[in-house]
Write a structure and sequence with these properties.
Blueprint: H1 13-22, E1 27-31, E2 46-54, E3 57-64, E4 69-70, E5 78-79, E6 85-88, E7 137-140, E8 146-151, E9 161-170, E10 173-175, H2 185-195, E11 201-206, E12 219-223, E13 243-246, H3 252-266, E14 271-277, E15 281-288, E16 293-297, E17 300-303, H4 306-310, E18 312-315, H5 318-323, H6 326-336, H7 340-350
Parallel strand pairs: 6-18
Antiparallel strand pairs: 1-2, 2-3, 3-4, 5-6, 7-8, 8-9, 9-10, 9-12, 11-12, 11-14, 13-15, 14-15, 16-17
Helix pairs in contact: 2-3, 3-7
Length: about 350
């Protein structure tokens, strides 16, 4: 397929997403396991959430079936200074990790025990398990590995939000091998190979200590228009320091992997990183683990992953969305950014 006409990586992902939405396959029904502080649901209420097609376009959808209430989850994007933006995503409160309030600062690493995996890769009977789901695509890439592409259980991009997991094939069955959320050269090569075939896709990776909620290797990907995130505006003063590479640089995976190895080996486990891949650039964002979760304002504490670092602040509460200011968001980003001296040191020493 022509990669310039959409999210094409052996399958037209944008079309597959729309077809799934039209068929009601991007709606999840499950039982709430905690009371919502905002009052949208009670424990044991039956809920539905996801994306549906309305008047020919994808829209977010959330319903409390028990109480027969449909919630409004489609607010316009709030534009902030320096190309930053805030989005209202109340359905993201339904994620398993949302049940546990966070305090600002470093966070305990998610368990590496497969039996405690939040993808429930050993438990097909769990309501959130990936095992019973049919992937949108199964892709052979490099290194004789397959990647399964699932829709995200709690999407924050209505035009397409995907999970990419390395899998093995056993006959006609997919085996979700529990690879830990640690970058390997082969995984990096595969992501670069995929993104080079895609025009309107953004792939990202949250390392442990940089927004990863599960210790099971996965990338995420969203439908994306080039230039729509603040980090892509190289002529602007983005609050986060980063290292960017042309996506078509020969030997790019090996170069970036050397940088990652240097970060992991040099800073005593105190520095982590995010990766963002577009069809033009790869962004490596080293960051301090001490600021994985940040206080944006008095009523807004949240974990910063790759998307928040790139310039899109996800708000799960309405007062967060209404009250957040450009100055607060910029201050939070500057807090987690590493110093100029440190990033210059990484640039200079990683390639020796």
């Amino acid at each position: 397929m022509n990669s310039k006409n959409g999210m094409s990586i052996g399958i037209d992902l944008d079309q597959a997403w729309l077809e799934y939405a039209e068929q009601g396959k991007i709606i999840n029904q499950f039982v709430a396991y905690f009371d919502d502080p905002a009052g949208w649901w009670k424990t044991n209420d039956i809920l539905e959430t996801g994306v549906v097609i309305k008047e020919g376009k994808p829209v977010y959808y959330a319903k409390n079936i028990t109480q027969e209430i449909i919630f409004e989850t489609n607010k316009p994007i709030k534009s902030l200074n320096q190309n930053l933006e805030a989005v209202f995503m109340p359905h993201r409160r339904l994620r398993a990790t949302a049940a546990n309030p966070k305090s600002p600062g470093p966070q305990a690493a998610p368990s590496d025990d497969p039996l405690k995996c939040g993808f429930y890769c050993q438990d097909p009977g769990h309501q959130h398990s990936l095992l019973p789901r049919t992937p949108l695509a199964l892709l052979p890439v490099l290194n004789r590995r397959y990647w399964a592409i699932f829709y995200n259980f709690s999407p924050f991009e209505k035009n397409g939000h995907f999970m990419l997991l390395p899998v093995r094939l056993q006959g006609v069955h997919i085996v979700l091998t529990h690879y830990l959320q640690h970058m390997e050269l082969g995984f990096l090569q595969d992501a670069i190979s995929l993104i080079r075939k895609c025009q309107n896709l953004l792939i990202f990776f949250n390392a442990i200590g940089a927004g990863a909620s599960q210790n099971h290797f996965h990338y995420q990907a969203i439908a994306h228009q080039l230039g729509s995130l603040a980090i892509e505006h190289s002529d602007s003063d983005h609050p986060i320091r980063f290292i960017d590479f042309d996506i078509n640089t020969p030997g790019l995976a090996e170069i970036v992997f050397k940088h990652i190895q240097f970060i992991n080996q040099t800073f005593s486990g105190k520095t982590s990183y995010n990766l963002i891949f577009t069809s033009q650039k790869l962004y490596l964002i080293p960051r301090e683990k001490d600021h994985e979760v940040l206080r944006v304002n008095n009523d807004f504490i949240t974990c910063f992953g790759a998307v928040e670092v790139a310039g899109r602040l996800i708000c799960t509460e309405e007062n967060q969305f209404n009250n957040v200011t450009s100055e607060q968001y910029i201050a939070a980003l500057k807090t987690l950014s590493i110093s100029k001296e440190k990033i210059d040191f990484i640039k200079a020493e990683s390639i020796k």
